[in-house]
DNA sequence: CCTCGTTGCTTGAGTGCATCAAGGATCATT
DNA sequence: AATGATCCTTGATGCACTCAAGCAACGAGG
């Protein structure tokens, strides 16, 4: 279990609740991944492969080094969840995509990660809209 | 930079904003720690030492193995931010606490991690209360 | 007292994430 | 062709995390 990010001493209740939310969210994500014997990073990458794409595109989208993606993809490939094929347009590049088993596992992961759905589901449609508006404003 | 936790395909806008919030929060936490040359885990442990406590207490509070805490504390100790002293009540145990330098760094970390403060600050007091109430309800 | 099970922490080994430096292959341009 | 940029991989390193094993000290019962 990754250590929580905070709380530093919180000065307002809203901050404290924000921290709780992030902590519970992150733990739920990790737990859902663990149910499928995936690391959070693996679940993350798997979830971004609705369409085939290059390694570099993944790295940029996820804000990390390309070599990091290489390693994660290598492991996902070893698990049979992902396949790399040469890009016909550019022989330097390799396109990554989910295998059928990868699709299956990704679906089960989405089903297992119920936190966001459940949390939002506790609110009425009006409340959901309010929450969305408030968070958008808070995010600036 | 740690890979983001999500999004799996989001079915509602509220879920998507929730994910954004968590992502931005986590990245801000990591960036604030990096400003002080700390890892997120180190910043987290440092932040929990307002009072001296045993290694086991830390591990339990943070939901991880005691040996994990040992390692993180060893590194913090090497940085001079933390000190371990024998517990006079129980010679098996060791009490960890921040050094003066640790206090200083922790303060600067709290100052550097502006995200939650800033985000909440964008809302009026009324809105902050609404947000708190909504998130509490969502968290169940 | 003195075992004996328990507790508190550390050590060691193993895995994975993350970043950086370096390198090979290919591309695109001149 | 030659050159420089781009795409990706490899290798090395550090940290987080977990598990198994171990040591030292506690506490309770004989």
Give a quick set of tags describing it:
homodimer; 140 residues; alpha+beta; 3-stranded antiparallel beta sheet; 7 helices; 3 strands; DNA-binding
List the SSEs and their pairings.
The structure is a homodimer of 140-residue chains.
Chain A: H1 13-35, H2 40-47, E1 53-54, H3 55-62, H4 66-78, E2 82-87, E3 90-98, H5 100-112, H6 115-121, H7 125-139
Antiparallel strand pairs in A: 1-3, 2-3
Helix pairs in contact in A: 2-4, 3-4
The structure holds a DNA duplex (30 and 30 nucleotides).
Q: Can you walk me through this structure?
A:
Chain A is an alpha+beta fold and 140 residues long. Helices cover 62% and strands 12% of the residues of chain A. The first copy, chain A, has helices at residues 13-35, 40-47, 55-62, 66-78, 100-112, 115-121, 125-139, and strands spanning 53-54, 82-87, 90-98. In chain A, strands 1-3-2 form a three-stranded antiparallel β-sheet. At the A-B interface, helix 1, helix 2, helix 5, helix 6 and helix 7 of A face helix 1, helix 2, helix 5, helix 6 and helix 7 of B. Chain B binds a DNA duplex (30 and 30 nucleotides) through residues 1-3, 39-42, 54-56, 59, 64-72, 74-75, 87, 90-94.
């Amino acid at each position: 279990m990754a250590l929580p990010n905070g709380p530093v001493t919180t000065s307002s209740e809203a901050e404290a609740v924000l921290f709780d939310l992030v902590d519970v969210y992150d733990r739920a994500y990790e737990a859902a991944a663990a149910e499928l014997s995936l690391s959070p990073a693996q679940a993350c990458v798997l979830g971004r492969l609705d369409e085939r794409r290059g390694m570099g595109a993944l790295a940029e989208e996820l804000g990390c080094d390309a070599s990091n993606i290489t390693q994660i993809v290598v492991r996902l490939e070893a698990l049979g969840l992902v396949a790399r094929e040469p890009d016909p347009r550019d022989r330097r590049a390799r396109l990554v995509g989910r295998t059928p088993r990868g699709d299956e596992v990704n679906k089960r992961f989405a089903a297992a990660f119920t936190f966001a759905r459940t949390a939002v589901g506790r609110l009425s449609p009006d409340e959901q809209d309010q929450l969305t508006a408030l968070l958008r404003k808070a995010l600036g």
